[in-house]
Design brief:
By secondary structure, this protein is mainly alpha-helical. The chain has one domain (1-415). The protein contains 16 helices and four strands. The chain has helices at 3-32, 47-78, 83-93, 98-131, 139-170, 175-198, 212-223, 260-265, 268-283, 286-308, 314-317, 325-340, 344-365, 368-381, 390-396, 402-412, and strands spanning 205-207, 231-234, 245-248, 255-259. It has a four-stranded mixed beta sheet. A hairpin with a 6-residue loop joins β3 (245-248) and β4. α3 (83-93) crosses α4, α13 packs across α15 (390-396) and α14 packs antiparallel against α16 (402-412). The longest helix is centred in the first third of the chain and has 34 residues, at 98-131. The protein is globular and about 65 Å long.
C-alpha cells in the first residue's frame, strides 16, 4: 500500500474521530446546563426556551455525527474503494470521447454526492426542524429547491469544468495559472450575479417600504459613509421561522438582506443595530479580505493541482490506477478537504474575531445595547444554545458564544 494512501486514510479517520468527539462534548455540555438559564439571559429567556435550545442543539449534533460518518464512508468508497475508477471505466465503455467523458464523469459524481445527501437534508428539514417548530418547507418546495440547485450548478460549473479540462490538455506546463485565472473570473462574476439573478430564483425580495424604519436605516447608511443599492427583505418565512440577516454581493450588486422573520421580532433600534453590524463587515474590509483569502487559497490549490498532475503516484494511491485529467480534478476536490481540516480552527477563530469587530463597529455607529437585545432575541427565537462546549466552539463556531458576545456589547453600552 502506498504511503499516501495510508496518510489519506489516517487523516480521514482522525478527522472523523475528532468530529465525533467534539460533537459528544457539545451534547454533554448543553445537556449538563439544560435546566439553568445563564444569569445574563434570565430576564429574556425562560427555562423552557433554554431547554428547547439544549434539545435542539443535541438533535443537530446527533444528525451531524451521522452525516460525518456517512460522508467519510462515501469518500472512502469513491477514492480508495475504487468508486471513481469504476464510474470512469463504465463511461469509457460507453464510447464517450475524452472531452465528453470528463464532463460527464464530473457531473455523475456530483449528482451521486447530491443524491447521497438528500436523506440527511430531509431528516434535518422534516425531522429536526419540524419537531422544534421551525420548518415551513413543503415536500414539493423541498424537491423544487433541490432540482433548481442541481440545474444551476450544472449550468454554471460544467462549462467551467470543460474549460479547465481543455486548459489541462492545451495550455502547456503553466495550465494551472490559466486555470486559476478562469476560477478567479468565475468566482468574482458569481459574487456579482448571485444576488441579482440566482437568489431571486429561490426567494422573493422587495425593498424596505418607506417609513420611520426606512428613514432610520437611510440615516445610518449615510452616517457610515456607505453606498448600497438597497436594503432587501427576503421571504425567509416561506421555508423556516428562523430569522437572520446578511450582506451579499460586490461592486454595484452589494446589498443588505433581512429575513422577514427577523423584522417581525425586532424593534426599530434593534434592526438599525443589526444593519450597523452588517455594514461593519464591509467597512472593516472583511468582505475584501474574504475575497482575497479565497483567491489566495484558489491559487495555492491550482499550484498544488499542477504539481500533483506530474506525480504518477497520486491517482493510483487514491484508487484510480489509470488516471486522467478529470479523475485528477475529482480526486483533488474530494481529498483536499481532508488535508485542510486541521486548519479549520484557525478559520473559525478569524471569523469570530471579525464578528467581534463588527459588533464594536455597530456599537460606535448605532446602539450596542440594542444590538445585544437583538442578539438575545435571535438566540431565543432560533433556539441557539447559550452554553456551547468551549472546544466545540473553538473548532467549529464561526460566531462567538452568546455569553462572550453579549457581555462585550453590554460593557460597551452607555450607562
Amino acid at each position: 500500500m502506498h504511503a499516501f494512501t495510508i496518510l489519506f486514510a489516517a487523516l480521514l479517520c482522525a478527522g472523523l474521530a475528532l468530529d465525533l468527539w467534539l460533537l459528544r462534548r457539545q451534547v454533554a455540555t448543553v445537556r449538563a446546563h439544560r435546566d439553568t438559564v445563564p444569569a445574563p439571559f434570565a430576564a429574556s429567556v425562560t427555562t423552557e426556551q433554554h431547554r428547547k435550545a439544549a434539545d435542539y442543539a443535541t438533535a443537530l449534533a446527533r444528525q451531524s455525527a451521522v452525516a460525518s460518518l456517512w460522508h467519510a464512508a462515501l469518500l472512502l468508497l469513491l477514492t480508495i474503494g475504487g468508486g471513481i475508477a469504476a464510474i470512469d471505466a463504465a463511461l469509457a465503455g460507453q464510447g464517450f470521447d475524452s472531452a465528453w467523458r470528463g464532463v460527464i464523469a464530473v457531473a455523475a459524481i456530483g449528482l451521486l454526492l447530491a443524491v447521497a445527501g438528500l436523506p440527511l437534508a430531509a431528516w434535518r428539514t422534516f425531522g429536526i426542524e419540524a419537531r422544534f417548530g421551525f420548518n415551513r418547507t413543503t415536500p414539493l418546495l423541498f424537491a423544487i429547491d433541490h432540482v433548481k440547485g442541481l440545474a444551476i450548478a450544472a449550468l454554471l460549473l460544467l462549462p467551467l469544468v470543460a474549460l479547465l479540462l481543455w486548459l489541462m490538455g492545451r495550455a502547456g506546463s503553466a495550465w494551472w495559472l490559466w486555470a486559476f485565472g478562469a476560477w478567479a473570473v468565475f468566482s468574482l462574476a458569481l459574487a456579482w450575479v448571485w444576488p441579482r439573478l440566482i437568489a431571486p430564483m429561490f426567494n422573493r425580495f422587495h425593498e424596505l417600504e418607506p417609513g420611520a424604519l426606512r428613514e432610520r436605516i437611510d440615516a445610518l447608511v449615510r452616517r457610515c459613509g456607505f453606498t448600497v443599492r438597497g436594503v432587501r427583505i427576503m421571504d425567509g418565512s416561506r421555508r423556516s421561522s428562523h430569522g437572520n440577516a446578511y450582506f451579499t454581493g460586490i461592486g454595484s450588486a452589494k446589498r443588505v438582506v433581512f429575513f422577514d422573520t427577523l423584522l417581525e421580532s425586532l424593534a426599530p433600534d434593534e434592526v438599525e443595530a443589526v444593519l450597523a453590524h452588517e455594514l461593519g463587515h464591509y467597512r472593516l474590509r472583511h468582505v475584501a479580505w474574504g475575497v482575497t483569502a479565497s483567491l489566495a487559497g484558489a491559487l495555492a490549490g491550482c499550484a498544488t493541482l499542477g504539481w500533483l498532475a506530474r506525480q504518477g503516484w497520486f491517482q493510483p494511491a487514491l484508487g484510480v490506477p489509470d488516471g486522467t485529467p478529470h479523475t485528477l480534478l475529482l480526486l483533488f476536490a474530494l481529498a483536499a478537504p481532508v488535508f485542510l481540516q486541521p486548519f479549520a480552527p484557525i478559520a473559525a477563530w478569524l471569523s469570530r474575531r471579525r464578528e467581534f469587530a463588527a459588533d464594536r463597529y455597530a456599537a460606535r455607529h448605532a446602539d450596542g445595547g440594542a444590538l445585544a437585545r437583538a442578539l438575545v432575541k435571535l438566540y431565543r427565537d432560533n433556539a441557539t444554545t447559550l452554553t456551547p462546549d468551549a472546544l466545540y466552539t473553538a473548532f467549529n463556531a464561526s460566531h462567538p458564544p452568546a455569553l462572550q458576545r453579549i457581555g462585550r456589547l453590554m460593557r460597551s453600552a452607555p450607562a
